[in-house]
Amino acid sequence: MIPLSWLLFFAAALFCIGLYGVLARKNAIAILMGIELMLNAVNVNLVAFWRYRTPEMMAGQVFAVIVFAVAAAEVAVGLALFISVYRRRKTIAADELDLMKW
Amino acid sequence: MTPLQMIFILVAAMTLGAGLMVVTARNLVHSALWLVLALFGVAIVYVLLQAGFLAVVQVVIYIGAIAILMIFAIMLTRNIASESGPRFNENWSWALVIALVLFGTLAWMLSGWDGIAAQAPAISPRFDTVRELGLALVSPEGFVLAFEVASVLLLAALIGALVVAWDRR
Amino acid sequence: MFDPINAIAQWLAALLASLGLSSGLVNLILTLVGVLAIASFVLIVDIFLVWVERKVVARFQDRLGPNRLGPFGLIQPLADIIKLLIKEDITPLGADKVVYNLAPILALATVLMLWAVIPFAPTMLGADLNVGVLYIVAVGAIGTLGIIMAGWASNNKYALLGAMRTVALTIAYEVPMVVALLVPVILGRSMSIHQIVNSQTIWYIVAAPLAAAIFLISAIAELGRAPFDLAEAESEIVAGFHIEYTGMKFGLFYAGELLHALTMGALFASFFMGGWRGPFAEQAPILGVFYLFLKAMFIYWVIMWVKYSLPRVRIDHMLNFNWKLLTPLALAVVMFTALTDKALIELGVAAGSLTYSLAMLALNLLIGWITLSLLRSYARIERQRVAAPRPVASPEYSGVAKS
Q1: Closest CA to C181 of C211, C146, C151, C217
Q2: Exposed e or buried b for every residue in A31-40, given b needs 16+ CB within 10 A?
Q3: Residues of chain A with pLDDT under 50
Q4: Which of B7, B56, B126 should be substituted to probe chain C, the one whose Cβ sees the most C Cβ atoms within 10 Å?
Q5: Mean pLDDT, residues B53-82
Q6: Which of A43, B139, C17, C174 lies 20 to 30 Å from C53 when distance is taken between CA atoms?
Q7: Domain ranges, ordered by start, for chain A
């Protein structure tokens, strides 16, 4: 049997990789990919806790399903925003979209 | 070490390696393809955790919809300047420090927690997790409210994406 | 006697166990042998499909088809394979090598993966997944990924255009397909294909003809076959996503496409036409395999019939057809099937009985009739709109710049 600690460390590492992508990448779509990795890490934790603590109560899996829905919604709106921004500004590099600073 | 543990280590290494490639690859389409591999690895982890339904849904939603949408968006927003320029912003070293510190803190907290050695209770073969999940999602004692809110959110996202991406010309 | 596959498996297990291997290892070896057997069997059928396809298209076009090599030209596919194997293997200069070479493998492998959950006979099936229906959708999604990889990695604008069209098509038609597949899931009370086939004492095509039609149409779209073959419209984008592929790499795409059509036939047969069910199939499982392939071949023939009879649809018409007709219709069918099912069970009609199936058939006919009358009134409004007088030769519309 896989120890719970392995799963938690795996999820933590995946979350931190995603966080690095979100903080360091320039391209907005790459940032979105980082967010997806972080959401997946959270889901691994939810499912792992469901399996190891309360397998007779489906709360962990239900939360994971809700996270799927939120992730899909987020990607749909996010990519639509990027395409809309790209039409006007011809770029989606996050640090060049600084019109609101001035 | 049991075969299950060996499979887990292989899958985890593959997923983390693919995740690293997602955030470091120069070519964005390669990033997206590595993302597909990482998401597939997470799906295998779900299978190892006996959550088969989530594993399949992970492949349908993440690989079938999200990753392909991302590749589409990457192709629609191609820009020579942003492809040849640096792929990280100037704060990337701080980002690295933050990520490493967060991982260190999480690892330290987790290793100090006494619930970490928990053993997975066996699921009886009569307990159909797919059936239970379906019941939990729609029964009033379960999570029907969260389920309905999620559906409203999806509808709002659908309309929102249409309105935002509509080309008014 | 009538179950040779399981007999061979038991004999092999006994042989391996007598060699002193542990039971876990024996199971592993048996699983691998099973995977290899199913995959090779399906691939051999695939070779035969090349001949079937060429022979049938020849009949539709009033020709004879391959008839030189062997009886009825049966050896022709082997000659085709040899030709493909000795062709030059080109990787374009600007191509992304790894992705370019991975794509055809992915395209064929995903089709082979679909056969893992199709029950061949009551005692012969690869895996009885309790989420089998969703598994099919998931594997189809990976196949789409293979196509987009091929289109992007070829570094060719026609390939990219073809890939983008394919993806728009498959993602759009996946929606009514999944929704239509929910109908057999409701009727069979399980997402396992094995269970769905087991509960079909009366074929579901009787109880759910509309869902079957929607599934067949979206399956043809998913296959990218005519009338939905925009992805490889020769007159517009040459050959679509596989334009740069030569030799056996192209062969993998071709084999994948043919096999995908037969696989869709087998899936249709399993969901709506009783899968392996037929006279004496339960006593002699080997007959079940025969029945399944007979039904799959019939659906494959229907798909070919559609392909060689209908002209290509324009892309906006195709997407309109999906979003404005198929998807709402599929949603309505699922909703009313669930409601009627609940009502029939409350009334004491057993699921799967003749009364139950006939009531469902009546419901489907009613929904179909309502759909047709709605379409008719829509067509009348559209005809009036087209016939109405329109302004002509105003400076804004004539293309002449305003002074």
Answers
A1: C211
A2: bbbbbbbbbb
A3: none
A4: B56
A5: 81
A6: C174
A7: 4-101
Whether A92 and A42 have beta carbons less than 8 Å apart is answered as no
User: DSSP 3-state assignment of B88?
Assistant: strand
Cβ within 8 Å, pair C134-B57: yes
Q: List all residues 6 or more positions away from C122 whose beta carbon is below 8 Å from its beta carbon.
A: C198, C276, C281, C282, C285, C288
Q: Which of B60, B68, B130 sits opposite C145 (nearest CB)?
A: B68
**Which residues 6+ apart lie within 8 Å of B27 measured at CB?**
B83
What's the ipTM? 0.87
**Class of the CATH-defined domain A4-101:** mainly alpha
State how far the alpha carbon of C85 is from the alpha carbons of A4, B46, C249, C251, in Å: 50, 40, 9, 9
- Please state, in angstroms and rounded to a whole number, the distance separating the CA atoms of residues C337 and C327: 15
Task: Tell me phi and psi for residue C244, to 5 degrees.
Answer: -90, -5
**Which residue, A32, A30, A35, is CA-closest to A14?**
A35
pLDDT of the residue at C394: 60
Q: How far is B34 from chain A (nearest CA, A)?
A: 10
- Check pLDDT > 70 for residue B169: no
Let me know: does B86 contact A91? Beta carbons within 8 Å: no
What is the reported pTM?
0.86
For residue B73, the model assigns a pLDDT of: 84
**Which amino acid type is present at position B124?**
S
For chain B, residues classed under CATH 1.20.120.1200 are 1-85
Asked if B63 is an interface residue toward chain C (Cβ–Cβ < 8 A), one would say yes
Query: What are the residues facing B88 on neighbouring strands?
Result: A25
CATH number of the domain located at residue range(s) B1-85 in this protein: 1.20.120.1200
A71 contacts in chain B (CB < 8 Å): 61-62, 66
- Phi, psi (5° rounding) for residue C349? -90, 125
Q: Whats the size of chain A, residue-wise?
A: 102
- Whether A47 and B48 lie within 8 Å, measured CB to CB: no
Residue partners of C76: CB distance under 8 A and separation at least 6:
C50, C51, C54, C66, C68, C69, C70
Segments in chain C below pLDDT 50: 402-403
C156 at the B interface (CB within 8 A)?
no
Domain edges within chain C: 87-377
Q: Of B33, B65, B130, which is closest to C131 when you measure between CB atoms? A: B130
